[in-house]
Target: 2-oxoisovalerate dehydrogenase subunit alpha
Amino acid sequence: MDDDLRDLLRLMVVARRLDEECVALQRQGVLPAYAPALGQEAAQVGSAAALDLERDFAFPTYRELGAAVAMGVDPVAYLATHLNIWHGGLYDPSATHLAPFNAVVGGPVTHAVGWAMGAQLDGTGGAAITYFGDGASSQGDVHEAMNFAGVYRLPVVFFCQSNGWAISVPTDQQVAGGSVAARAAGYGIEGQQVDGNDVTAVREATRDALQRARAGGGPTVIEAITYRMGPHSTSDDPRRYRSTEDERAWAERDPIARTASSLPAEALSSAEEHAEAVVRETGERLRALPPPPGDELFSFVYREPTAPLLDQQRAWKESQHA
Ligand SMILES: Cc1ncc(C[n+]2csc(CCOP(=O)(O)OP(=O)(O)O)c2C)c(N)n1
Ligand SMILES: [Mg+2]
Model:
């Protein structure tokens, strides 16, 4: 049991230190922008640790570094997306079972439902998990996706990180009725709230929901109650819309301190030591990434490139030889 908790702690500490490094890299001009996951490590690591990486598939938003770490995705390949020169990062979604991350609010939810329908038709036995926020939960697409999944009993887990904010808008102004989980009843599916800062509770709830989905029991909405301890992104200043008392109250519920408190002190120090090495190596490799080939600018835009696009590609190539 202790070993298991140590593993979860290690993943959360790696996620947090990498996250801090990303903010530093943004300040140094290496990353153009970054969306910190500070405070959401238990929700992300706990849920991703519940996945069966042979069969299941995860659909992340722009804030899922902790999930990527827990899924064993190379952080350099993941963070290449934040460099903003590589579309979809450098990891292979079909090998890692982590979709390219999605900056469209609510976007990954529809994708997960589509994947789940494919899994149901193919009989692969896997389930999808989609990440989304409290703000995304009020997008029309998310409601359509939940209803569709409910009608077809699709193997999908709707994992909402209710982190208090949609940029500067508090959750109570996004979620009428106060609960994302309660909406599940309207779609005829399971819904539950979980303490999103309790890593083992999150993992257990997600494991149960995934198992039910794989066994044909249909979708589940899990609403993990957590808190975005940092800014929305590196362009945001949360002091303009929230109080330091609120931040302080949530700092006392820090998911890492909470897990560490039930383990010997040495568990945290060894996790920190390991994380430091991961951060150093990640930073070095990220800085050393070569720019992508310029003509990739024109690739992957359409399946069949259009005539104007081909003209532009030709003009670009000629300009390179000028
Ligand atoms: C379709 C769409 N609308 C608006 C935006 C701008 N936007 C980016 S993040 C965000 C707030 C999302 O809040 P939430 O779903 O709670 O996720 P969080 O950022 O808290 O993780 C908005 C409105 C967007 N990216 N996509
Ligand atoms: Mg939010």
About this structure: The CA atoms of residues 37 and 63 lie 6 Å apart.
